[in-house]
Amino acid sequence: MSWFIFIWALCNLGFIGLATSMSKHQKQIFGKELNAKQTKLASIVGWLLLIAGLVACIIHGDSISNMISYWIGVLSFSALMVGLTLSYFAHKVKLLAMVSMILSGLALVIHLL
């Protein structure tokens, strides 16, 4: 269970990063558009976090195909969470990002123990 939470939190952060690279969501989250450098950085960090989730899944499991399927399932659940948060509670996206960071750290520590 802690592994699922870790991967889910990483994917949440990745999708939030990708969302903050879009001008519409920048206005929702920050109340203004970010400059081009910040937008590019958000996009890169978002993709890196999603890739980190994939790599963590592949390293953790026995079968690559099973773990890619697992990652896609977690990715779908994470996309739903971030999408619904942006649609209905856009002002709470920063809170979701903070909770995801804390959960990812806690879940990784619990998993490693």
Overview of this protein structure:
This protein is 85% helix and 0% strand. With 113 residues, the chain is mostly helical. The model has no long low-confidence stretch (mean pLDDT 92).
Care to give the gist of this entry?
It contains five helices and no strands. By secondary structure, it is mainly alpha-helical.
How are the elements arranged and paired?
Elements: H1 2-19, H2 23-30, H3 36-60, H4 64-88, H5 93-112
The H-and-E topology, N to C, reads as HHHHH
Q: Indicate the overall shape.
A: elongated
* Total number of helices: 5
Task: Kindly report the average pLDDT value.
Answer: 92
Structural class: mainly alpha
Sheet-strand content, in percent, reads under 5%
Number of extended strands: 0
Residue windows where pLDDT falls under 50 for at least 5 positions: none
DSSP helix fraction: over 70%
Largest sheet: none
Supply Rg.
14 Å
User: How far apart are the first and last residues' alpha carbons, in Å?
Assistant: 13 Å
